[in-house]
Design a protein that fits this description.
Length: 73
């Protein structure tokens, strides 16, 4: 049961980070039309940093070694 709750917590955290990166991208899109390059670069950097960290985090979980069902012989 702990494994299921851990996976659910990790997926909720990932979803929150993805939404946060999406908000930064929407902010950057609005800043393109305002031609505010300083804020645009900051918003894009934040979005890419969050998304990059999320990808690395997900890859770390994905490459976790699987538990063996049977002991080695």
């Amino acid at each position: 049961m702990d494994l299921i709750s851990n996976v659910l917590q990790e997926s909720i955290l990932s979803e929150k980070k993805l939404c946060q990166a999406n908000r930064h991208l929407h902010l950057a899109h609005g800043l393109i039309y305002r031609r505010d390059l300083g804020m645009l670069s900051q918003a894009l950097f934040s979005a890419l940093l969050i998304a990059g960290c999320l990808v690395v985090y997900e890859m770390g979980i994905w490459k976790r070694p699987a538990k063996r069902l049977h002991p080695p012989r």
